[in-house]
Amino acid sequence: MALPTPVHSFHIPVMGTGFTIDTPLKVARYGISSVVSLVDDRLIEQMRQKVSGALGRAYEAIAERDDDARARRITAYLDLMHDEVQAQMARMKAMAFEAGNELSTYFEMLPTSPLRSLYETMQSMSDPEQRARLQDELRARLTPGTIDVNIMTKLDRERLRAGQSLGPRFSDAMTALKGFAESKLESSVILSAGMNAKLYGYLAEFQDFLPDDAGQLRKTIVLKVSDFRSALVQGRMLARKGLWVSEFRIESGLNCGGHAFGGRGQLLGPILQEFHDKRAELTGQLHEACGKGLQALGRDVMPVPPPQRVTVQGGIGTSDENAMLAAQYGVDGTGWASPFLLVPEVVSIDEDHLARLEAAREDDVHLSNASPLGVPFWCLKTSESERARLERIAAENPGSGCPKGYLAFNTEFTKKPICTASRAYQKLKLKALNVLPGAAPAEVTDKACICHDLAGGATKPLGIDPEAKTAVCCGPNTVYFSARTSLREMIDHIYGRARLPLDSERPHMFIKELSLHVQRLREEMADRRQELSDKGQAAADSVAETRDNLMLGVRYYRERLGELAGEQRDRFAGQLESLREEIERLLPGESS
Length: 592
Known about the structure:
Elements: E1 10-11, H1 23-27, E2 34-37, H2 41-55, H3 69-93, H4 102-108, H5 114-124, H6 128-140, E3 147-152, E4 160-161, E5 164-165, H7 172-181, E6 188-192, H8 197-203, E7 220-225, H9 228-239, E8 245-251, H10 268-296, E9 309-313, H11 319-329, E10 333-335, H12 351-359, E11 365-368, E12 377-380, H13 384-394, H14 423-433, H15 442-445, H16 450-453, H17 456-459, H18 487-494, H19 509-527, H20 529-535, H21 537-559, H22 561-565, H23 569-586
């Protein structure tokens, strides 16, 4: 009923627009799934030209003003990657099993599994005929990782031509979906950043997202969610349209890279526990709703629920944590993002910023106000993008030239939407505030040109945009990985076959997330004292809800110390108690 079960128990999530733009070409042949952002079709077209040239494939440009250009650019690039990965797999199947080549590496990087055991059995066989038979079976079972795509549902800018709207079907999110839906890929679309009813309705118009006559899904839907309620609400919305959610991808609210949707103190442990306890209920409700949705479309009802995975990502750093998430919560897989920024054979990153990441310490990665979306955004302070932004402020010329405009949503001063990171907006805002550029408030000038600068990791080293000012959207977990690493070494680290040298002060992923919530609460309490005073009970209730959720998490972790922390139990308990005391000092309330 769905795509084949992955051969690896981890995936590489989307990182910015550029860092994972060609990652499938580097890892899919090893059975590793990764995610490509569909935000920046200009970058996608540039990459298609670059990759086509490198592979000796024909390239015909799709100009920005061509009909349906955005969707067609996305389809063409995804088809190019699909064809190349298929060619890579064909070459691997033709290889002999020799030490160090790609075919042997494929099986040697697998986790403990029946397929890996079969490979090890083949390696130990002395009988030539039996060995050859098993080798043929292994070749037949080679499965590439999927080329998955990410659509941020809220990035749905209206497209204009000659000042006139092209209509809702040509908005950014809708055309990104069309580009994926019309591609050759049999993979997943990851929908992130909340609900978009218009986009969800559009999904049902593409046959690949609905079961065929044999009950198969060629393309599957993955929802990135922050809690169980969000999964249930969005899952129902899609199910009523006959659409099945094949995976719920749970992400830590704060202990992640890029945009951080922190919520009101909801912690990953209790969230995972709720998914674990209510998973059968969730699947049952969605199966019933999906059946009714399919009947309304005149389609056969699926007699049993298709597979539905639950995965988790955000701050995972050790094989112990990776194993704990599977053992305690039954998750079907994990996402490892920021650590892979230090694996140059996996991501696109220039040498300069790779060195800056190696040297980064905790103070160098911060939760900023850089995003024009108004959502807290993790970034590297020492990046060229941040340095260029500060230099423009010092020169009393804040703001970006806004070369791409994917985040142009603001109409405070103009009829045509503009981006709050743009020079045009910041000039108008400072004029409205009657403030000179030299005295510009941080809430105006903190905004950075992330839709262009996040592509710099790819465009700068590839010579597409040599003057790019690269932004790096790494999460706080990055700083504990202090040295560049090979793909093989990182995979062995994930599966516990080897250990990368991590900062000895790195806390458990659950403790780190809790500390980030406490830090954010501390900063908000300092910033919002007047607001809390002015808004009275509503603001007080919000703060009380945050405190209650944090204390609920503290009690939950206390009760499960041995199961969650293992050998780190004593250290985990001491750090947990310190954070509990800090919460009490900030927000006195019911004792925990």
